[in-house]
Every structure is written in structure tokens, then in C-alpha cells.
Write a structure and sequence with these properties.
The protein is α+β, with helices and mostly antiparallel strands. 51% of the residues lie in helices and 12% in strands. It is elongated, with a radius of gyration of 22 Å.
């Protein structure tokens, strides 16, 4: 049986959870439902190198999967599931960058407009 660590407020988790509903090959463990589940996940995350990449970018590392042989993976495809087409973390980063770029462009436009109005006032 594959252990699948998730949290009900995680959009990526919700997406893969729907794929395993009723599948006896998966044990879904919601780390937000009980402190016992959270402690189990934190111990795994703190001791397993599969989480190194996720931790390096301040990602929690869910959903994650523990295979029957003890192998840990953060990739849904490794357990036969499809990952969400629009990865929510990537979308968050892109949206954040887009908002920052929009702000910078607006500031440049305001600065240029102010310079033009100042120049016109002088003339």
C-alpha cells in the first residue's frame, strides 16, 4: 500500500486525492487532521533526502508518497497519478512576478508622465 501524505487545504493534494478515491492501493494521510499525522510527516520530511529540493525552495513537500519498499517521492507520476496541468506553485510564482512587473511598468509610466508635465510647465 502506498502512503500518500496530503493536506485538505492544498490544491495539488486535492487534485491527486480525487484520483485515488476508493483505490485500496493508497492510504491517504491528511497531515492537517491530527497532530499524530503531522508529526509522522515532519519526521519523514526532516530525515529523508527526497525533500531536499522542496525545502530549498521553501515548499512543504506535499503531496508526497511512501512506497511499499520505503522509497519516498514527491512526484505523482511515480505512483501512476497525473499531476495537475497548471502546477499551483508555479502559477503562484508566475502571478507574483507578473504583478511585480506590472507595478514596475506603472511606476515607469508615472515617472515619465511626471517628467513630461514638469518639462511642459517649465517651457
Amino acid at each position: 500500500m502506498i502512503k500518500m501524505y496530503v493536506m485538505h487545504t492544498c490544491p495539488d493534494c486535492e487534485y491527486v486525492e480525487k484520483q485515488v478515491e476508493g483505490n485500496p492501493d493508497f492510504e491517504v494521510i491528511d497531515i492537517g487532521k491530527h497532530v499524530r499525522n503531522l508529526k509522522q510527516f515532519i519526521k519523514l520530511r526532516d530525515t529523508n533526502p527526497a525533500f531536499d529540493e522542496a525545502k530549498a525552495v521553501d515548499d512543504l513537500g506535499i503531496p508526497c508518497y511512501v512506497l511499499e519498499d520505503g522509497t519516498v517521492t514527491l512526484y505523482s507520476k511515480d505512483v501512476g497519478l497525473t499531476e495537475e496541468v497548471a502546477n499551483s506553485r508555479v502559477n503562484q510564482i508566475i502571478t507574483g512576478l507578473s504583478l511585480k512587473l506590472t507595478l514596475v511598468i506603472n511606476l515607469i509610466v508615472v515617472a515619465m508622465t511626471s517628467d513630461l508635465m514638469f518639462t511642459a510647465a517649465i517651457l
